[in-house]
Amino acid sequence: MIVVLENAVDKEIQDTIESCICSSEFPWFYTSEITGGSKFGETDPYGGFFNIVRFHGQANNHYNDLFLEILRSVVNNTNLQVFNVDRIRAGMFTREKEIIIHSPHIDYDVPHTAMLYYVCDSDGPTFFYNDQKEIIKTVEPKKGTVVLFDGSTLHSSSSPCISARRIVLNYNFNVNCPVQNNIQLVQSQ
Residue 99: how many CB atoms within 10 A of its CB? Predict the structure, then answer.
């Protein structure tokens, strides 16, 4: 199951995160394999920018506490019970001449829950796939929106062709039971 929650965090937190991550002070690092698909045997010819904020359950830099506020907001607005926040990763793609759909992939091949948080409005949707790699859901990047899904779900990002950038925070964590049995949708605010 793929759960989309609009306005999942307070507007003040949304604006603080966007201001922080879109400033010239935020450290971005380039990689030629942004999706990491090659580690699972997928072709991954797409480069982009990233910042690993949390890795193997440990803060990697001082942005960890701020970005955990998003997850805390989601937990407070749902019955999601989170433990072992393994990774928080910021990802950015810049504008291309045409939309480029990146390689379908999973973040880890161990059971986990994944969450995406869209930092700003953008084009360049996220695609979700079935086992035959057919698109089953498309989510447009909208500031303040969270997408929760089983970490074994194939998904892919795409590059924007209208917006200057597409920025997403990607979370990988465990819950006390699978997402589809443990989340109640809350009304958009």
Answer: 13
